[in-house]
Amino acid sequence: MITRSPIPLQCRPAEPAPGAWQAQLAGAIRDPHELCRRLGLAPDWLPGAEAGHRLFEVRVPEAYLARIRPGDPSDPLLRQVLPLGEEAEAAPGFVADPLEEAGHTPKRGLIHKYAGRVLLIASPACAVNCRYCFRRHFPYEENAPSRAQWEETLAYLRDDASIHEAILSGGDPLAASDRQLAWLVERLEAIPHLRRLRIHTRLPVVIPDRIDGALLDWLGSTRLQRVMVLHINHAQEIDDAVVEACRRLQAAGVTLLNQSVLLRGVNDDVDTLAALSERLFEAGILPYYLHVLDPVAGAAHFDIDDDAARALVAELRTRLPGFLMPTLVREVPGEASKTPL
Ligand code: SF4
């Protein structure tokens, strides 16, 4: 079974208060039986859920579970998190490292693919395990730096004045503790040529209580410009708690963008994509990218072919103002940027 390493010990407060985000993170459902039982799925879903779970463990926090319609196996949120037997089927071109990131890690925990920006693996853990994740096979164990190794990574940033942006990624960077993140951001902002801090996260969506005072303290006070790229694939993911979390982030000076993945059975129709853009804007988030699926082993059943993707987006353009249109892209290994389709 592919498991993500547990949340690093230093990320856990000794005893999180009941209901605090740390307690919600620790209490996420990690058992396919429990997931099927809680959602009232028929018993014939269980063998597939167990088979998929053996490849990439199930993880669903309660706050996300509450937005899934019980008894509906086609629910678009459930489809993102329910392991299926299809994940064990090999598909041509679907591989463990579809973006060939292993060749772009000059330092432990650092991925440098594009000019001017680097990506830092700030946490090996996620609050939710998305079945289509392009990093579902990522060797997090080999890329979780110690404090001493972070110093080497930071030296790499200090030595390259062409780097203007640090991107915190993971896993989910917000699964790390605020103490750890504040430590890291303090060192990043001491690098004079760094201008921006970008955070790629799904945590404000799946556990909105993550956006608490402790997080806003370090995020709101850094000199770096702050951009948060959320990951939301369906309007049903944005409930009132998510809207409130976004409001708090904006009040702290954070620009909010969204990237989605085009997923068969989740958001591969124009009405759903239009509703997503509208709902994002209501929450103060601008649509940024609509990614076609990265061909990661275990996720082929989510794939949409390029012509169908282009047709969807062309129709979407007739329905939405330009500022609500995400750019349809693919990440091609070795290219200097994302590739528009
Ligand atoms: S939250 Fe992001 S990194 Fe984590 S499993 Fe989902 S898609 Fe992958």
The overall pLDDT average reads 93
**Main sheet characteristics:** 9 strands, mixed
Per the CATH scheme, the topology name of the largest domain is TIM Barrel
Task: List the helices and strands in order.
Answer: HHHHHEEHEHEHHEHEHEHEE
CATH architecture of the largest domain: Alpha-Beta Barrel
Main sheet: strand order = 1-2-3-4-5-6-7-8-9
Low-pLDDT regions: 2-11
Overall shape: globular
Give a verbal description of the structure.
The longest helix has 13 residues. This protein has 2 domains: 70 residues, no CATH class; 240 residues, TIM Barrel (Alpha-Beta Barrel), CATH 3.20.20. Strand 3, helix 7 and strand 4 form a beta-alpha-beta unit. The two termini are 35 Å apart. The protein is globular, with a radius of gyration of 19 Å. The protein has 341 residues and is an alpha/beta fold. Helix 11 packs across helix 12. It is built from 12 helices and 9 strands. It is 31% helix and 14% strand. A 9-stranded mixed β-sheet has the order 1-2-3-4-5-6-7-8-9. The site of iron/sulfur cluster has 11 residues, from loops.
Summarize the model shown:
This protein has 341 residues and is of the alpha/beta class. The chain is built from twelve helices and nine strands. The protein has helices at residues 21-26, 32-38, 46-55, 62-65, 78-81, 147-158, 178-189, 203-206, 213-221, 240-251, 270-282, 306-317, and strands at 110-111, 117-123, 165-170, 196-201, 225-231, 254-261, 286-291, 327-330, 339-340.
